[in-house]
Amino acid sequence: MSHILVADPDWEPEPPLVKAEVDFEHIAFQFKIWDRNAHTTRMSEWLLLHRPGLYFSYRLHEQLQVQGDPALKLSKQLSWQVREVEVSGRSSWHTTQVDHGHSQSFNRYLFDLDLLEKDFADMPDDPHVLYYLGATNFAALEALLGRGEHSVTPQMTSWIEKGIKYLELRLKDHHVKNPALPQEQTWAAMRWLAYAYQNFQVDFDKAQHWYTKCVDFDPERPDCPVFLSKLYRQHNLVRQAWGIISEAVKVPLQERRFSNNFYIHQCSLPLETSLTLIELLQSEKALVEPESLPIFLFGWKLLRSAQTACNSPSIGFLLESEESVTAAEAAYRAMAPASGSAGTSTLDVRLCATSFHCAVARTALSLSRNNSA
After folding, report:
1. Per-residue CA distances from 201 to 192, 228, 357 (Å)
2. pTM score, two decimals?
């Protein structure tokens, strides 16, 4: 045996898996996993050169421990991809347990929390354990209640307090400033903590604090700017929302190893930008002049993109309701005659606030003419 592949029973490979990409010069080989939630991907290194001393650590979200070797390179990225799927008749340990259900069911999260608490008793300051304890408490709440804000019950209070406690321990300075720890997991802890303060404790100041730290920690990720913009809009701070989301929408998607949320970039980001812009145009009437045509078309184009590419019967808009999106479309349509009063022939570079808006506006103008036809 030359190599070992560790696989979950719910993985379906995406052919081709080219064996020629695997070599004897690297210890571990990365491949992409499309997560069951249909929103994210992650990279795994569970394909390894067969060597003595390999072992798993942790009871849950196990990590395969690999000893270094000066003669070998540590990791190589492959083109291999697998998808997490529910397959009828496929046997795993979880399918034999009463009420475990699928990997995102509420009862399964309760089982996971029990294992994580055992790891915490053994390793009370382990950053891996702290992150997953915090995130899993909130994931269990979402599985039970759905996303967004909810009225807090005594049962919920326990999970909320535990989730916040563990994530704040994970974000202590000695963990955040440790370069040896996974930086993307540190970022994810900030995102989860801000989300908890926004939706479970409805604490604007703390939610803003952690979203801002999250944006500053990794400004090229769109997730926290989207959530922070929505937080500002919820508190009628449209100018602040526009300031953060108008910068985020300029950043191209970058592939991430951990919690790579392509749905946020492709769907939630354009939608949040469009919703913020229409509120800004409504609140500041001076902007609704012929000169605002490019930015107006920019917002309408982004709304159209979200409506056509991001909505589905199974997923919906994720962070927004169908009603809010429909209301935004009506608002754009109602404002269209005023914004276009100068005539589309006046659209040129001189009317654009920035070269970025010009490029998008010219595309939007072309699309709007095609849609009208």
Report:
1. 13, 15, 37
2. 0.83
